[in-house]
TrEMBL record:
Domain Citrate transporter-like: 39-414
Protein name as annotated: Sodium:proton antiporter NhaD
Subcellular location: Membrane
Organism in which the protein naturally occurs: Vibrio cortegadensis
UniProt keyword list: Antiport, Ion transport, Membrane, Sodium, Sodium transport, Transmembrane, Transmembrane helix, Transport
Principal subcellular localisation of the protein: membrane
Keyword Transmembrane helix applies: yes
InterPro entries registered for this protein in UniProt: Cit_transptr-like_dom, NhaD-like
Similarity comment: family membership: Belongs to the NhaD Na(+)/H(+) (TC 2.A.62) antiporter family.
NCBIfam families xref list: NhaD_1
Positions of transmembrane segments: 26-44, 56-71, 91-107, 128-146, 152-170, 177-200, 212-231, 252-269, 275-292, 339-360, 372-395, 407-434, 446-464
The keyword Cell cycle is assigned to this record: no
Superkingdom of origin: Bacteria
């Protein structure tokens, strides 16, 4: 039997009527089982060496096949079609937004901006404690623009290059980077996918995220201060390296800032989705890429003349290996596994919502519980399960909450992932980058200290922004 006899008509959070309540049906239980198996495989990504997008893409297809079959049996296929189109639109907006952001980050990487920053930090001769603070602060302040995953990987590369075989320092420094990158991403729509989702859903506008700045700083500083006492003041062996920025590197940073401003303006002034502004920003990069290609021969001729005049053979060799800038090559370097994983999550959670499960969870968490405690629990849950499906589930439930509570769930979902190394993309990536030096159990030892920062940041938000909870 595919359904229990008590299949009821209800309305879903997407505003669709005549949906079926399948929470007590065989189809419902099977969908939950498929999602749990798929997500278990996602969590075991590092062990199985299986990319996280694969299981959720398959799970999404299977869940919607079952939904389509049942709705067709009941002559309600239009409702399922509307639901799937609604979820596809949600995904398309976020996909294009993230694709443009990732393309810009890839372009900056290709123009050697991150290499130059890394070489500067490595060559300055900082002691271990100074390096700990520097990588933490830079992670916190770069992640609101460059996203927490890219930032964490950049800083981890610096730590690995400088620390060498000092496993203890690498572990603590990586924990510090993960906390800082996640905290820095919590107050900016460009820093974390969950914050971006809340902004695109229209619950919080761009400027209204600013009250989260101080709670985010506290979330980072509390554990960082405690951990810093366990770091020696000795100096590592310094490696000096010269990195020459490629042509147009600084101008690409300027174009990225202009793109962010365009996206914000589209949302704030015209009330259009921010993704329209981001796609316009991609055109800025494309035109600049065209300019770089067209002026390349003239630029190379000038550099060649200078190199010959100075008898600089190394410069002549570099000129011979210059590759023209190609925007579409940068697009191909986007994190496609993450983008496809995100599709699978959106479609799985959308399917579970249509089956009625998110309505049940919402009823318990946001009606029977105090919303503050529900949002604190969202953060703790995001340490175990990736924060993307957790936040998408909350947005799909559409609980009626004050601005203070929407900011609270943005904060907790963003920083809650720092509690465990598997709780955020930054943590998982660093376990791979610093394999054997930064580990799950190495992170777990500092969990009480990180939890203290988590609790303190929530307390600071509740105290400083108390007026936002009474709207």
């Amino acid at each position: 039997m595919l359904m229990s006899p008590s299949v009821l008509a209800s309305s879903t959070s997407s505003g669709l009527n005549s949906s079926l309540d399948l929470t007590q049906s065989t189809i419902g239980y099977a969908a939950i089982g498929i999602f749990v198996v798929a997500y278990t495989l996602v969590m075991l990504e590092e062990v199985l060496k299986l990319r996280k997008s694969k299981p959720v893409l398959l799970a999404a297809g299977l869940i919607w096949i079952m939904i389509g079959y049942v709705y067709q049996q009941h002559g309600n296929i239009d409702v399922a079609q509307q639901a799937i189109e609604h979820n596809l639109l949600e995904y398309a907006e976020l996909l294009l937004f993230l694709l443009v952001a990732m393309t810009y980050i890839s372009a900056m990487e290709e123009r050697r901006l991150f290499d130059a920053l890394q070489a500067w930090m490595v060559g300055k001769g900082f002691d271990f404690r100074s390096l700990f603070w520097l990588t933490g602060f830079l992670s916190f302040f770069i992640s609101p623009i460059a996203d927490n995953l890219t930032t964490a990987l950049l800083m981890c590369a610096v730590v690995l290059k400088v620390a060498g075989s000092n496993v203890r320092f690498v572990n603590i420094a990586c924990i510090n980077i993960v906390i800082a990158a996640n905290a820095g991403g919590a107050f900016s729509p460009f820093g974390d996918i969950t914050t971006l989702m809340v902004w695109q859903a229209g619950h919080v506008n761009f400027a209204q995220f600013l009250p989260l700045f101080l709670p985010s700083v506290i979330n980072y500083l509390v554990p960082a201060l405690i951990m810093s006492f366990f770091i020696p003041r000795t100096k590592p062996d310094t490696i000096h390296q010269e990195v020459e920025l490629k042509r147009g590197a600084r101008r690409i940073v300027g174009l990225f800032i202009l793109t962010i401003a365009t996206a914000v303006a589209f949302h704030a002034v015209l009330h259009f989705p921010p993704v329209i502004g981001m796609m316009m920003g991609l055109a800025y990069l494309q035109f600049f890429g065209y300019f770089l290609r067209q002026t390349l021969p003239m630029s190379l001729a000038k550099k060649k003349a200078i190199a010959i005049a100075n008898n600089d053979e190394a410069a002549l060799k570099r000129i011979g290996s210059v590759v023209p800038f190609d925007v579409f090559r940068r697009v191909s370097h986007a994190e496609w596994d993450t983008l496809l994983f995100f599709y699978g999550v959106v479609m799985c959670v959308g399917g579970l919502s249509l089956l009625g499960y998110l309505g049940l969870v919402s009823e318990v968490m946001y009606t029977q519980w105090d919303p503050v405690w529900a949002n604190v629990m969202v953060g703790i849950l995001s340490a175990i399960v990736d924060n993307i499906p957790v936040m998408f589930a909350v947005l799909t439930m559409e609980p009626v909450m004050s601005m203070g509570n929407w900011l609270l769930v943005t904060l907790t979902a963003g920083v809650g992932g720092s509690l465990l190394s598997i709780g955020s993309a930054a943590g998982v990536a660093l376990m791979g980058a610093a394999h054997g030096k930064y580990t799950f159990f190495g992170h777990l030892k500092w969990a009480p200290v990180i939890m203290l920062g988590y609790a303190t940041s929530i307390a600071v938000h509740l105290m400083l922004n108390s007026h936002l909870f009474h709207q």
